[in-house]
Amino acid sequence: MRKVKRLNREESQTRTRDLLMRSASACFARLGFEGASVDEIAETAGFSRGAFYSNFADKDEIFLTLLKRHLERDLRDFEAALATSDSFEQLVEKAAARYVELGDHPDWCLLMAEFQLRVSRANKTDDAFVRTYAEYRQTLSGLIEQTFAKFGNKGSLAPADLAITLLALSHGFALERAASRDAIPMALTGKAMKALLIGAASKM
C-alpha cells in the first residue's frame, strides 16, 4: 500500500492558504466582495473561521493577495508576448486575443470595479489596493514603452496614458457585457483593442 506523504507545517499552511484563496476567488466571483463572507469562504474551502484568520487578517488582505497574483500573471503574459513577437502587428494580435480571453471571464473586471468604488468612497489614497494598482499601471506603462522602442513606434499617447486607456477599455467592456447580459459580442473587445493600439502607435 502506497504511503501518503505527511505535509510539514510550512507545506500544510501553504496548502491551506491556497485552498482558501481558491475558495475566496470563487465566492467573490459568485457573490461579489461585499456579499462574500469570511464564514462562506472558509466553509467552501473546508476550514473553520479560525483557519481563515490564522492566514489572513480580513477579506481585504485575501482579495489583495488574489489581485497581486492576477496582475503579476497579466504582466508576465505581456512580457512573453513582447519577447516572442517579431512585429508590432503580431504583438497587437496577441494582446487583442488576450483581452478577448479575459473578457470570457469578466469576474475579475467586475470585482475590480467593485473594489475601486469601495476604496474611492472611503477616500483611502494610501490604501494598499491603490498602491498595488498604481504599481501595476506603472509596470504596464514601462512595457508599452519597451514595445515602442523595440518596434520603432512613436505613440500618439504617452505610455502611461495608453496603459490607463487600455485598462479603462477592458474594464468598460466587462461592465457593458455584464449590464447587457452578454449581448455585446466578445469579438468587439478584440477589434476595439486592435484599433486603439494601432491608432495610438505610428512609425518613427
Condensed summary:
This protein is an all-alpha fold and 204 residues long. 78% of the residues lie in helices and 3% in strands. The chain has 9 helices and 2 strands.
Q: Could you please describe the fold and organization of this structure?
A:
- With 204 residues, the protein is an all-alpha fold.
- It has two domains: 8-56, Homeodomain-like (Arc Repressor Mutant, subunit A, Orthogonal Bundle); 59-203, Tetracycline Repressor, domain 2 (Orthogonal Bundle).
- Helix content is 78%, strand content 3%.
- Helix 4 (59-83) runs parallel beside helix 7 and helix 5 (88-103) packs antiparallel against helix 9.
Layout of SSEs?
Blueprint (H helix, E strand, L loop, with lengths): L8 H27 L2 H8 L3 H7 L3 H25 L4 H16 L3 H16 L5 H24 L1 E3 L3 H21 L6 H15 E3 L1
Antiparallel strand pairs: 1-2
Helix pairs in contact: 1-2, 1-4, 1-6, 4-7, 5-9, 6-8, 7-8, 8-9
Number of strands: 2
Q: What is the CATH-assigned architecture of the largest domain?
A: Orthogonal Bundle
Helix content: over 70%
Strand proportion, as a percent range, falls in under 5%
Low-confidence stretches: none
The CATH superfamily of the largest domain bears the name Tetracycline Repressor, domain 2
Tertiary shape: globular
Q: Rounded to an integer, what's the Rg over CA atoms? A: 20 Å
How confident is the prediction overall: mean pLDDT? 86
**CATH T-level fold name of the largest domain:** Tetracycline Repressor, domain 2
State the end-to-end distance.
Answer: 68 Å
What is the element string, with H for helices and E for strands? HHHHHHHEHHE
Q: How many structural domains?
A: 2
**Biggest β-sheet description:** 2 strands, antiparallel
**Category from helices, strands and their pairing:** mainly alpha
Query: What is the top-level CATH class of the largest domain?
Result: Mainly Alpha
Strand order, largest beta sheet: 1-2
Number of helices: 9
